[in-house]
Amino acid sequence: MRQRFNLSQQQDDAEINMTPMLDVVFIMLIFFIVSTSFVRESGIDVNRPTADSSDAQNKAAVLIAISSDDDIWLDRKPLDIRMVRPAIERLRSEQSEVNVVIQADEQSSTGQLVSVIDQLRLAKVQYTVATTGGE
Asked: What's this model's pTM, rounded to 2 decimal places?
């Protein structure tokens, strides 16, 4: 009878407490969620113009693309010019600092590029026009 009591007591003592490990995992998960910045891609491939004075940008940014047909793309969806400002303001409400990179195709019209820049200025965000490096 005494052996049964010792055996059941040993089985209870052999339990592993998982609470500290789960706490560490959740803290790491929260850290990675908070510290991660997400890149919003435009959704189309753009043939960018070449510039000898282009600089590489290392910051994560929101990409807006203007196709050769003057279509505007944001986050893999086509967008009307009137919706650029509200979409960027919504993104700015989610992230405090939004950097926008405009990828305009060589064949797109300058008027469409100026319209997008105007909408970004009205939304009060910083923007850059993407080019490819010169030879």
From this structure: 0.58
